[in-house]
Amino acid sequence: MSIHEVFMPALSSTMTEGKIVSWVKSPGDKVEKGETVVVVESDKADMDVESFYEGYLAHILVQAGESASVGAAIALLAETEAEIETAKAQAQGAGTAKSQTTAATAPGQMADTAAVATATVATQNGNGSNNRSGRTVASPRARKLAKELKVDLTGISGSGPHGRIIAEDVEAAAGKVSTQPATATPITPAVAPVTPSPVAQPTPAPTPAVAAVSGQVVPLTTLQNAVARNMVASLSVPVIHVGYNITTDALDQLYKQIKSKGVTMTALLAKAVAVTLQKHPLINANYSDQGIVYPASINVAVAVAMDDGGLITPVLQNADQLDIYSLSRTWKSLVERARAKKLQPEEYSTGTFTVSNLGMFGVDRFDAILPPGQGSILAVGASRPQVVATTDGMFGVKQQMQVNITCDHRIIYGAHAAAFLQDLAKLIETNPQSLTM
Q1: Angle between the 265-279 and 324-339 helix axes, to the nearest 10 degrees?
Q2: Which residues lie within the region annotated Disordered (predicted)?
Q3: Most buried residue, 137, 205, 363, 389, by most Cβ within 10 Å?
């Protein structure tokens, strides 16, 4: 007999807290292994959280609409109907609903606690790595790693929730330093299939729906909080801004020819950027304490404004390798699912270079803020008719747009950024047809 704690899962590497969108199950309902229990809003999307255990939802600690930190208990799951009342009593004796509940056990019984989304077992005592029966409590990944490194888990002090042993503890005991942050065991959120509808123009971002009431303070959404944290983190990075005017007559002509096939201007720009990045891998790289990190692929993220005032950057993965028609279909699907908060973490967190296009709003020029973990971001202004000098010494009118690139100046210098923009302009001005090949 046992009672399990349902923890707030870490649905992305940047997530620090989650908001309960809705409980799929009600107290007293039977829960099957692999069945969705709750819908959680992470910093970027709404995710269905499935149970790794069979039992009964005994008590909800965090109600719909409320938030909890990653690793905090949000509900109790009883293995049998007889234990439901015991779980309720434990919850009432634990204090507030938002506290990280430590379930007390009856004499002669052991109550293991486990996270629904991570399927890792936590200690009942709240400190240390062993429960009352003396059994070492560790995550499955930690146990597997301990076996590979031949490390004895006994005596290791766990640094995970409730003192459980995690992979980093095993690596530390083996004298190996982890190079990646710990992540929760992936969950499989249920995402409704989306049938993208063809649109010729790039999908403009909607006007953010902000509840502005005089005399009131409107709390930030989970997504807005995530954006705020990222922007503050960017302040510590020294950046350089480089601008360039690009003539778009040839690109505009190409767009008119192929837009009826579902191609968007956003996809054309992303493809042009990706192809140019092939020649400038440093612009696609990012800084780390160990040195310059060159990603294995070119993943172009494009900023999209959300209905609730937040910002998300869906990622066109391997954008340099996809044909323009596949890229456009992928982009339309990404935007639809982003607005519905149905993107998977890898669809918004794997960008290696970002494009922010405010030209669709008529903005002439702007500087974009560098996203954490990336080396560059390109700000795209509106394409407008400009009077320019021609090669024969005359004046003419051409469509031009101004782009401004923001780069991490620790690894990318002005000459690097200028060379990239020159090649991007050359591609768009003289050979945009190559984007369809």
Answers
A1: 120
A2: 122-141
A3: 137
Catalytic residue positions? Answer: 409
List, as one string, the DSSP characters of 92-117. HHT-STTS-------TT----EE-TT
Q: Are 5 and 113 in contact (CB under 8 A)?
A: yes
Pairing of strands 3-7, 73-78: antiparallel
Q: How sure is the predictor about 160, in pLDDT bands with cuts at 50, 70 and 90?
A: low
**What confidence score (pLDDT) does residue 79 get?**
81
Q: Strands across the sheet with 376-389, in order?
A: 239-247, 395-408, 376-389, 353-357, 300-302, 315-316
CATH 3.30.559.10 in the chain: give the residue spans. 222-436
Q: Where are the alpha helices (DSSP H) in 280-357?
A: 324-339
Find out whether 355 and 378 touch, Cβ atoms under 8 Å: yes
Q: Indicate the residue type of 274.
A: A
Helices 265-279 and 414-430: crossing angle in degrees, nearest 10, is 130
- Both tokens of 40, joined, read 């959680």
Q: Token pair 């890792």 is at which residue?
A: 120
| Integer Cα distance of 147 and 299 in angstroms | 36
Domain with CATH 2.40.50.100 in the chain: 3-173
Q: Are strands 30-31 and 36-41 parallel, antiparallel or unpaired?
A: unpaired
Residues in the chain: 437
Which one, of 305, 107, 314, lies nearest residue 206 by Cα? 305
Is residue 395 within 8 A of residue 402, CB to CB? The reply is no
Q: Is the pLDDT assigned to residue 197 strictly greater than 60?
A: no
Burial of 252 (0-12, 13-18, 19+ CB in 10 A): middle
Q: Which single residue is written with the structure tokens 């692999």? A: 34
Q: Which of 28-42, 200-214, 245-259, 381-395 has the highest mean pLDDT?
A: 245-259
pLDDT in tens, 74-104: 888 888 877 888 877 777 766 543 344 333 3
Count helices and strands in the chain by DSSP H and E runs: 8, 20
- Full-model pTM: 0.59
**Intra-chain end-to-end CA distance of the chain, in Å:** 63
- Say which residues have a Cβ less than 8 Å from residue 402's Cβ, sequence separation at least 6: 243, 244, 245, 246, 364, 365, 381
**What average pLDDT does the segment 261-270 reach?**
93
Quick check: 140 and 185 in contact, CB under 8 A? yes
Percent of residues in the chain assigned helix, strand, coil, to nearest 5? 30, 25, 50
